Amino acid sequence: MYKYHLPRPIIVKLTDELGFRLRQKAAEYIAANQNRTGAERGSSEEQGFGALAEMVIRNKLGMPEINPEDHPLGYDILLPSGIKVDVKCRGGALPFKEEYESSDGIAREAKHNFFARQMHDERLDADIYVMTHLETPSKRELPGTTRQRKWVLYICGWVSKERVANEGVYLPRGSLTEQGRTWFTYRGQEIEYYNRNLNGLETVEDLLSIDPPDVEKDRNHKGDLNLTSVDAVRIAYDLIGRGVLSEKHLAFVQKETGLTKIVKPILHANQYFHLLYWLKGKGALTDGEIEKARQVLQEEPYSGI
């Protein structure tokens, strides 16, 4: 039976002899078996990252590093308990962090992403997902070289497929999302699920302890927030302005998230002050109200390049 742990990533460096061998093996496997069909499939590079993450986990579990040719396509690993595992991996030049710094001094919690269409594909019948992140060099084509030091796999934890479907947040193409100091829009149909809500692993071998009752318990779990604390407060602000929520709801969100600092808006403060000055020019706003805005927002004048 699985014993719960906080989701702290297990760090596996892939820069030693074994790591380079697995990187080579993943590159060779994708060269021979790249998936060129299917909705929102990963690029060859992304498929290579996924293959590498799977091989690392299989190696840690004492399993063959590559599945036999007749292995079903709906999942990656079959645990001794009969649980079907899909290993998810996305790569990037930055290490995985549980929180990312932002310019307002409020950390943004880490999230994981799923392709929505894959989530709803009944042929992909995994019971649980194991979430990983691969830190790569700037030139990140597998297998890389023996001299590159930035091949690091972060194994973050596991979650049942049903729990992601029930609690994750679906975002259509073009939706805006934030990571630390940066914003970007999604090119695909994504489901966001936050790292803090995963079931953590003390060792990779803990996966072998997961039984069907553990998965069933996770499927029935309810109540986790899959937003950053900052976005939860932003949404409360917005819904108060729209007459849906009240100040008591904002206070509840702030208490639950532990966030008492002033949250910066999505638009720049200069845009807010432009509207305030426009309202003042129309005689609809006083200097006192503008000063009140300055208590929560800060203008940023041009200071040169």
Q: How does this model look, in words?
A:
The protein starts with 9 loop residues before the first strand and ends in an 11-residue tail after the last helix. It is elongated. It folds into 3 domains: 217 residues, no CATH class; 40 residues, no CATH class; 38 residues, no CATH class. Strand 2 and strand 3 form a beta hairpin. The protein has 305 residues and is of the alpha+beta class. The strands form 4 sheets. Strands 1-8-7-3-2 form a 5-stranded mixed sheet.
Labels describing this entry:
19% strand, Restriction endonuclease, 3 domains, 305 residues, alpha+beta, five-stranded mixed β-sheet, 12 strands, three-stranded antiparallel β-sheet, single chain
Topology (SSEs and partners):
Elements: E1 10-13, H1 17-33, H2 44-60, E2 77-78, E3 84-92, E4 99-100, E5 108-109, E6 111-115, H3 116-119, E7 128-135, E8 152-160, H4 161-167, E9 169-171, E10 176-179, E11 182-185, E12 190-194, H5 212-219, H6 229-241, H7 247-257, H8 269-281, H9 287-294
Parallel strand pairs: 3-7
Antiparallel strand pairs: 1-8, 2-3, 4-5, 6-12, 7-8, 9-12, 10-11
Helix pairs in contact: 1-2, 6-7
Number of helices: 9
The ordered H/E elements are: EHHEEEEEHEEHEEEEHHHHH
Name the assembly state.
Answer: single chain
C-alpha geometry: elongated
Number of strands: 12
Number of domains: 3
Task: Specify Rg, calculated over alpha carbons.
Answer: 23 Å
**Uncertain runs:** none
Structural class: alpha+beta
Major sheet strand order: 1-8-7-3-2
* Cα end-to-end separation: 59 Å
* Proportion of residues in extended strands: 15-25%
Helix proportion of residues, in percent? 25-40%
Q: Main β-sheet, in a few words?
A: 5 strands, mixed
Mean pLDDT: 93
